[in-house]
Amino acid sequence: MGEKFMGKMQGKVILITGGSSGIGRETAKVFAKEGAKIVIASRGEGKGRDTVEEIQAIGGNAFFVKTDVSQEDQVNNLINRAVSEYGRLDFAFNNAGVEGRGARLAQETMDIWDNIMDINLKGVWLCMKYEILQMRKQGGGVIVNNSSSSGLGGAPRLTIYSASKHGVIGLTKGAALEYIADNIRINAICPGIIKTPMHDERLSTTPGLEDIMLSMVPMRRFGKPEDVAAAVMWMCSDEASYLTGTTILLGGGQGVSI
């Protein structure tokens, strides 16, 4: 399909993991509308291909690679496919993640720990590894890692999740300094409570949880995937060319008070 959009990301290539729904899907659409070519990666093949079709229906350019980011061979294949299809990789949004079951720490299991750490932390490391190798070859690029407001503080009943997101910030800061001379900018975004399908599922299983969560947000509304997508767009753009090794909290005031 020919390119319909002419925007500030015209001709650029972005990889989005966890791009089949929620924040990832919305970010893909926003970049497509600015002319970028999109590589969607996720474990869910049906939703991933639905996202590609949605982008193509509005005149965008995208394709899907089924990927488990915790598996090194699949991540390596993902980057190779992106470069084979589009010739380069300008941006990467490492967004794939899982939340856990909302239990207290002593009630968690080794399986829960392994699953959360494999996807949220090892997955980000593996993606960064192969993204950086490609970006060094081509002379630079931008990586945005999706952490969380929980990566800046504690989160009761999400302690393992919180630990994994703290780890993402550590990876971001260290790698940003390691590869600054290679013209690779690496930052993290820390969304607060964003209204996604995962969020809605949590609310549906716990009566009264919505009011409790809203009370935690000074702006008194949940964030939208579009809010995160706009921030990621700016972080990848030349307007943010002096930004690296930084975390941006996007939480409607959540996390500001001591």
What does this molecule look like?
- β4 (91-94), α4 (110-138) and β5 (141-146) form a beta-alpha-beta unit.
- The protein has helices at 22-33, 45-57, 72-86, 110-138, 159-178, 197-205, 209-215, 225-236; strands spanning 13-17, 37-42, 61-66, 91-94, 141-146, 184-191, 247-250.
- It has 258 residues and is of the alpha/beta class.
- The mean pLDDT is 92.
- The protein has eight helices and seven strands; from the N terminus they run βαβαβαβαβαβαααβ.
- Helix content is 45%, strand content 15%.
- It has a seven-stranded parallel beta sheet, with helices on both faces.
- It has a single domain (13-249), classed as 3-Layer(aba) Sandwich (Rossmann fold).
- α1 (22-33) packs across α8 and α4 (110-138) packs parallel to α5.
Beta-strand content: 15-25%
CATH architecture: 3-Layer(aba) Sandwich
- Spans with pLDDT under 50 lasting ≥5 residues? none
- Going by CATH, the homologous superfamily would be NAD(P)-binding Rossmann-like Domain
Q: How many beta strands in the DSSP annotation?
A: 7
Shape: globular
Give the total of domains. 1
Structural class: alpha/beta
Here the CATH topology equals: Rossmann fold
Tell me about the largest β-sheet.
7 strands, parallel
Average of per-residue pLDDT values: 92
Q: Spatial order of the strands in the main sheet?
A: 3-2-1-4-5-6-7
The helix-strand sequence is EHEHEHEHEHEHHHE
Number of helices: 8
Question: What's the multimeric state?
Answer: single chain
